[in-house]
Design brief:
The structure holds two protein chains of two kinds.
Chain A lengths: L4 E4 L3 H9 L4 E4 L5 H7 L6 E4 L8 E3 L5 E4 L4 H6 L1 H6 L1 H9 L3 H6 L2 H6 L50 H7 L3 E6 L2 E6 H4 L18 E7 L8 E6 L10 E10 L2 E10 L6 E2 L1 H7 L6 H12 L11 H20 L1
Parallel strand pairs in A: 1-3, 2-3
Antiparallel strand pairs in A: 4-5, 5-8, 6-7, 6-8, 9-10, 10-11, 11-12
Chain B lengths: L18 H5 L15 E7 L5 E7 L8 E6 L21 E2 L5 E7 L2 H10 L1 E6 L18 E2 L3 E2 L2 E3 L2 H7 L2 E9 L11 E7 L2 E6 L4 H12 L6 E4 L15 H12 L5 E4 L2 H7 L6 E9 L5 E13 L20 E11 L12 H19 L3 H7 L17 H12 L11 E3 L2 E13 L7 E6 L5 E4 L9 H13 L6 E4 L16 H20 L8 E5 L5 H4 L3 E13 L5 E11 L6 H20 L5 E2 L4 E2 L17 E6 L23 H13 L10 H4 L2
Parallel strand pairs in B: 1-14, 12-13, 16-17, 21-22, 25-28
Antiparallel strand pairs in B: 1-5, 2-4, 2-6, 3-5, 7-8, 9-17, 10-15, 11-12, 11-14, 15-16, 18-19, 19-24, 20-21, 20-23, 24-25, 26-27
The chains are: A alpha+beta, B alpha+beta.
């Protein structure tokens, strides 16, 4: 770990100014991912701007009727919040499926969004990685890629996004409120993350110095019937092989509305728009869920190491939607 | 027959005598021993798997606080390269990726680490070979397998018996590379002062490390002291000295008078602290229509390192488990540019019994027999290998007691039938075994103190097993005094010689020495000794090891749930029943058994070191990538034992229990997965993708 300076930001604008004007600066919140990266040599900031004590730690009703979640709200507090648990159960479940109790009490909402892939080659300075060093090559393609992406991959990168929370946010159409040198803007989650393409070193569309202030949940009534299902190799403390966040509105046996997003399958939380479109207005039956899942996964580009994720994602989508349909019947 | 102690303290569930110190942080582990003005060591590791170091540029290291940078060009010279693994910084050769090629000594661990990252090493890279495949033409036959078993055995005519067998099984099973991950990393503080080398080391053998490092450094063993009162787990990986010990000694020699602290990072533990070799095991079984084995062949391919040979004894348990008149076992090695494999809890038995006990389950299915009944029908009256009588073989008793407790009698043998919501339900059984070793050479001293307590000294190790407590209980019974009247001293090579805490031999060996010393003490000093009265004794190999076959046995039961849609695997229930002689301390023994079973569960479902042969290193080298069972994976787990004693093993009537708990556990789970799903998984670990329909 190389020496660095540490300052505590006095307010959001101060934090943005400190980072925007200094190429080596980074925001520090819970530190659960950044500090690891500093130890591993993946990140070498020369200035840490601590934003964890800024007054961004509230969960409140938004003017639009949704919920505004402060950037510094701890994952454990967000998961336990009564409003989140009743109005957006998928979000609470996703948070509780992530990491461990100890990490969740440190990790923040914004930090969770900003965590980086756990691809082992990305985390190992001694192996080539396009995400770490553009142009170096991808060690996962042709290497160990059991945990890697099957959707939206590029020839440069097959890393997955590790967050559970972000998958629920993608399904529930959250927006990210960002403060930058040019002022404040709202970024729908769908536009927040980037597919790898030929710029795999960029995870998000945030500009230099942009600071997340909050996440806004829209008033989505049927999100009360939402769920998050994470499939992993052990019962706790493992990243998703595949995860599914879904909300389902069934009326008279038909799908009135639906939201589905997948985790563990792409460089971003993967919103299953094609499956949703197929399901809307159709029957809420396992066969229909299966057909929609297959349609979504038709574009999958599996490798020998992760081909199992295609049937696993399909089965998990069907399992989650069937359970939600049963609940609402 | 040994004269057995009358158990009074033995058999009682005493709390760990060091437990209060441990929970209050007063029991120092290796890195925590207070030393003044320590320096810190951080290694530079090779980024190639084979070749030569051409140049090392330390010019870019621009840190205040760096005291020295060791390379093969300037490091102190070591004396012995008999153990090539410990020939650290003595030549420019690179034998495996991650090998130490330089090291920084600095005033803080952070400076040492950062400076190590600034050392530039230039290599001449050569093509390496790090891939284990069973069809390699260059497999070699080792002279012996660990520690000194015959490499191959052959009895009768296996091929002929297989050809005429009514029922045959011929399958290949694989187990992956696995790494020991004790909670306490391998750590050493080394101090070279006044012509003496002191190591505060996390080790299973203070005396072993002393002897090894004295030879490596060219010192008289009397110049070396190893202190290790508390060890946070070892599982075999701390059974012998590893390169970090050699590097710490080099650093200490380089900065005389200043202690140097060195703890391996979790990632470094995946390189220099040993590992369980991956195995490829072909098992062929032949049986008559009643399920009686006529042939058993167990042929193993595994790996070793070019630096130093380690040949795991994977097929050895198959030599004694079941009565098959025609038997063969063999071991072949791929010799690779990889780190040196070593001991990991029950080396040999653990991977070998996974394969053999799944094969036996397959035979039971093929014969239409209950798997317990199949094992009972093939239970040998005497050791099939040596012909000697068993000192106590109660596998059948374990199986029957386990069946009763587990509710085996209501089991429908057909697979894939039972369902609990989304989950398929199955149960499985497998046998366990582990040899009973007493190693010669341990010595104990007993001295009566002015405080009217008996000071019992032996350089033994407690690696979290409960040895502090169990040895105190043994000493009390051997002396015929209350446990409160015993003051035990262990964990220091200045104490009398003790053999390694390995091979489940610790309590048997050290306890025997303590009993011998107590007997000698009472003979010489009577029951009313004066202050300062003292006696010692040393043990040799017990005669029973030449007349009897000494092994422990057990039966492992598992209930498994497999999610019908996702393939997730859960183990709601495990039961182990063991026949292990007299149990010294039921509290710590239960902990050992269920700890072993948990490690077996972890092996069954999670553990796999992923070697990327292109680079030659394990890429999932941390606890996020290398999965070990967490609390949520372990539900109802219980271990019980038969009430018995072994009249031939040692004066306590006990046999070792540190390792048998893991043996067979993975097979029981694999067999239960088959029963739940109808899918036979022969390659560990059993992950969701392998049972996904």
């Amino acid at each position: 770990m190389r020496p660095f300076k540490y300052v505590r930001a006095t307010d959001p604008a101060n934090a943005v100014a400190l980072v925007a004007n200094r190429p080596g600066a980074a925001f520090l919140a819970g530190g659960t991912n950044l500090v690891d990266h500093m130890k591993l040599g993946i990140a070498e900031p020369d200035l840490l701007v601590d934003v964890s004590r800024l007054p961004l730690d509230r969960i409140e009703q938004s003017p639009a009727g949704g919920v505004r979640i402060g950037a510094a709200v701890r994952n454990s507090d967000l998961a336990a919040d009564p409003m989140i648990r009743t109005r957006y159960p998928a979000l609470s479940q996703a948070l509780l499926a992530g990491a461990s109790g100890q990490l969740r009490t440190l990790a923040t909402t914004a930090g969770n969004l900003m965590q980086r892939t756990r691809c082992p080659y990305f985390q190992d300075l001694t192996t080539p990685c396009n995400k770490r060093t553009p142009g170096a090559g991808c060690s996962a393609i042709g290497g160990h890629n059991r945990d890697h992406a099957i959707l939206g991959c590029s020839a440069e990168c097959i890393a997955t996004h590790p967050s559970d929370m972000a998958v629920a946010l993608a399904a529930l159409e959250a927006s990210v409120v960002v403060l930058g040198p040019e002022g404040e803007r709202r970024v729908p989650l769908a536009d927040f993350y980037r597919l790898p393409g030929d710029t795999p070193h960029l995870d998000t569309n945030l500009g230099r110095g942009e600071l997340i202030l909050a996440v806004e949940m829209p008033p989505l009534a049927f999100a009360e019937r939402s769920a998050y299902r994470k499939v992993r190799d052990r019962a706790s403390f493992a990243f998703a092989l595949v995860s599914v966040a879904a909300a389902l509105d069934v009326r008279d046996g038909a799908v009135a509305d639906v939201r589905v997003a997948l985790g563990g399958v792409a460089h971003t939380p993967w919103r299953a728009l094609r499956a949703e479109a197929m399901l809307r207005g159709g029957p809420a039956t396992p066969d229909a869920f299966r057909a929609a899942a297959d349609a979504e996964l038709a574009a999958a580009q599996p490798l020998p190491g992760n081909a199992f994720k295609v049937p696993l994602a399909r089965n998990t989508i069907v399992n989650v939607l069937t359970a939600l349909a049963r609940e609402t019947a | 027959m040994t004269d057995l102690l009358e158990p009074r303290a033995i058999g009682r569930p005493l709390e760990r005598i060091e437990g209060r110190d441990k929970v209050r942080g007063l029991a120092p582990y290796a890195y925590e021993h207070p030393v003044s003005d320590p320096l810190y060591l951080h290694p530079v590791q090779a980024t190639i798997a084979r070749g030569r170091v051409v140049a090392i540029d330390t010019g870019g290291v621009a840190f205040p606080g760096v005291v020295a940078i060791l390379t093969h060009e300037n490091a102190p010279r070591l004396a012995s390269d008999e153990n090539r693994e410990l020939w650290v910084l003595q030549s420019d050769e690179v034998h495996y990726r991650g090998q130490f090629v330089a090291a920084v000594i600095a005033e803080t661990p952070e400076i040492a680490r950062e400076a190590a990252g600034q050392v530039r090493v230039e290599y001449e890279q050569q093509a390496h070979d790090a891939e284990l495949r069973p069809d390699r033409p260059d497999l070699v036959r080792p002279d012996k397998v660990n520690p000194s078993f015959d490499t191959d055995t052959q009895e009768g005519d296996v091929e002929a018996a297989l050809a005429t067998a009514a029922v045959r099984i011929d399958q290949t099973y694989t187990t992956p590379m696995e790494h020991n991950n004790p909670m306490e990393p391998h750590a050493t503080i080394a101090l070279w002062a006044d012509d003496r080398l002191v190591l505060w080391d996390s080790t299973q053998s203070a005396h072993g490390v002393r002897k090894t490092m004295a030879a490596v450094c060219g010192l008289d063993p009397a110049q070396v002291r190893v202190i290790s009162p508390h060890v946070g787990g070892g599982f075999g990986s701390k059974g012998t000295a590893h390169p970090h010990n050699a590097l710490a000694c080099l650093a200490a020699l380089a900065v005389p008078g200043q202690p140097v602290k060195f703890a391996l990072s979790r990632q470094q533990m995946f390189v220099v602290a040993g590992y369980r070799t991956p195995t490829v095991q072909r098992i062929r079984l032949g049986a008559d229509a009643d399920g009686r084995l006529t042939a058993l062949a167990h042929d193993v391919v595994e790996q070793t390192s070019k630096v130093k040979e380690f040949a795991e004894q994977t097929a050895v348990a198959s030599r004694i488990m079941y009565a098959a008149p025609n038997r063969r076992t063999s071991h072949r090695l791929a010799v690779l540019d990889v780190p040196v494999p070593s001991w990991m809890r029950a080396p040999g038995e653990t991977p070998g019994m996974f394969a053999a006990e799944v094969a036996l389950d397959e035979l039971a299915v093929a014969c239409g027999l209950d798997p317990i009944e199949l094992r009972i029908r093939n239970d040998p009256e005497s050791d099939p290998e040596s012909g000697r009588p068993w000192s106590g073989r109660n596998l059948v008793g374990c199986l029957k007691e386990g069946a009763r407790r587990f509710g085996w009698d209501v089991r429908d043998p057909k697979p894939g039938l039972r369902r609990l919501g989304d989950w398929l339900v199955g149960t499985g059984v497998a046998s366990s075994t582990y040899p009973c070793y007493v190693f010669p050479g341990s010595k104990a001293t007993i001295q009566y103190g002015t405080d009217q307590r008996y000071v019992v000294r032996i350089g033994a190790a407690d690696i979290g097993t409960g040895a502090w407590t169990a040895l105190t209980q043994i000493a009390a019974d051997a002396l015929g005094c209350p446990v409160e009247a015993v003051r035990l001293e262990i964990g220091d090579s200045d104490l009398p010689m003790a053999t390694v805490a390995g091979g489940s031999s610790g309590i048997s060996s050290w306890g025997s020495a303590i009993v011998a010393a107590a007997t000698a003490f009472r003979e010489r000093h009577g029951t009313d000794p004066g202050p300062g009265a003292r006696e010692d004794a040393e043990i040799t190999q017990p005669p029973a090891s030449r007349t009897h076959a000494l092994h422990s046995f057990g039966a492992q039961f598992a209930e498994v749930h497999v999610h019908a849609d996702t393939g997730e695997i859960r183990v709601p229930r495990m039961l182990g029943v063991f026949s292990a002689g007299r149990i010294i301390n039921p509290r710590t023994a239960r902990s050992q058994f269920i700890g072993g079973m948990t490690m077996g569960l972890s092996m069954a479902l999670h553990e796999e070191s992923v070697m990327d042969a292109r680079f030659g290193h394990v890429i999932n080298h941390d606890l996020a990538g290398y999965h070990i069972a967490v609390n949520a994976d372990v539900k109802d787990i219980d271990a019980v034992w038969l009430d018995e004693h072994d009249p031939h093993s040692n004066p306590m009537g006990s046999r070792g229990i540190g390792e048998i708990g893991i043996v067979g556990a993975a097979a029981a789970i694999a067999n239960a997965v088959w029963h739940a799903t109808g899918i036979r998984v022969r390659d560990l670990p059993i992950t969701p993708d392998k049972v996904l329909s």
